[in-house]
Amino acid sequence: MKRAERLSRRARWLLMVPPLLAASCSEPPPPSGGPYLWRVQGSGTEYYLFGLLDVPDERVTVLPAPAREALSRADAVYTEVEVGDSATVAMARASALRSGDNLIELLPEELRLRVETWVYEHSVPMEQVEPLKPWAAAQLLVSYDAALEADELPSHHIARMAHDADKAYGGLASVTDQAGVFDGLSEPEQLALLAGTMHCLERCEREGHSAREDLIEAYCSGRDAALLDLSCELSEAEADATVRARVRRRLRETRNEHLAKRIRERVERAADRVHFFALPADRLIGPDGIIARLQRYGHRAARIGGTEAELDPPQAPQVATR
Predict the structure, then answer these.
(1) pLDDT tens digit string along 87-114?
(2) Secondary structure (H, E, C), 219-263
(3) Whole-model pTM above 0.85?
(4) Closest by Cα among 100, 50, 101 to 74
(5) 95: phi then psi, degrees, rounded to nearest 5
(6) Dist. CA 151–CA 112, nearest whole Å
(7) Is residue 104 within 8 Å of 129, Cβ to Cβ?
């Protein structure tokens, strides 16, 4: 495979997945709590939030029937970052160290040995790892096998469906927004992110399973707590309390607040349209998730196919600070 093609696959993955295989099926089993799909009312209109797990696996790429129906009703479709060649090129640039820098040479010895061992034992081309920033390397090490085995991520599948149906399509955030969340972390914090990912990968392998499979299983079974725990462990496992708090604040609180604001702006700007937002499932759920933040702005949500109870009464918006 040519280097340009490898970079393209790597960058497409980095566009969507936080540091975090193929079953054959035409209709995936719905999560036990219902699909990660919510109908939301707010700002004088109705819209849908769909939580995806952006790995190239039919178990999560084939949309459940309620999500397909919601997508068919929508006039406008958004993913976190717009899918396209320009975004792929931009992310490849944003994830790279300065010209001439080598990640392996920048790592502390103990972490360097762990990364080198993992790369060697899992046949990850070292030339793909060396030019990456620590946060980008963490994502690549989680995703490498899957990125080689399939061509389409769920976000790409949704974007293609929107284009095929001639629907308005775009991204809620730019590549600059996306990479900026990670680039805003200091070098020790980025190294802690990479070390946390290594800890999770190594622990799963010792126990005879994979972090990626654990994420897929948690998602497909609708186990919200497990999905959140795995997402946090992949980024925070070896960081001290101060670093953990800052990483979580930037990756979840600040980022989720930004996306919640963008959603509100989009639906207010075109209240006559039905919107469909496809975002990582772990960003939607939890007390600091996007749904909870939209609720604080007065929006009301009901999960489709699961418990139809609304969220708690609206609260005053609480904006995360950097």
Answers:
(1) 888 888 999 999 899 999 999 999 999 9
(2) HHCCCHHHHHHHHHHHHHCCCCHHHHHHHHHHHHHHHHHHHHHHH
(3) no
(4) 50
(5) -85, -5
(6) 30
(7) yes
Q: Please give the distance of CA 56 from its chain centroid, rounded to a whole number.
A: 13
| Torsions phi, psi for 300 (to 5 deg) | -120, 135
Rg (CA), the chain: 19
Rounded distance between C-alpha atoms, residue 193 and residue 42, angstroms = 36
Q: What is the pLDDT of residues 154-187, one digit of tens each?
A: 999 999 999 999 999 999 998 888 888 888 888 8
3-state secondary structure of 310: strand
- How far apart (Å, rounded) are the C-alpha atoms in residues 58 and 266? 30
Q: Which residues pair with 166 in a beta bridge?
A: none
Question: Phi/psi at 303 (nearest 5 deg)?
Answer: -75, 130
- Contact at 8 Å (CB) between 38 and 275? no
Closest C-alpha among 121, 116, 109 to residue 206: 121
Q: Report the DSSP beta bridge partners of residue 78.
A: 170, 277
Q: Among 253, 204, 272, 246, which residue's Cα sits nearest to residue 45?
A: 272
Q: What does each C-alpha distance from 102 to 105, 156, 166, 184 come to in angstroms?
A: 5, 31, 44, 20
Q: Give every CB contact of residue 219 below 8 A, 6+ residues apart in sequence.
A: 31, 36, 53, 60, 227, 281
Q: In what helix (H) or strand (E) does residue 46 lie, and over which residues does it extend?
A: strand 45-52
Six-digit token pair at 47? 């819209």
Distance from the Cα of residue 315 to its chain's centroid = 26
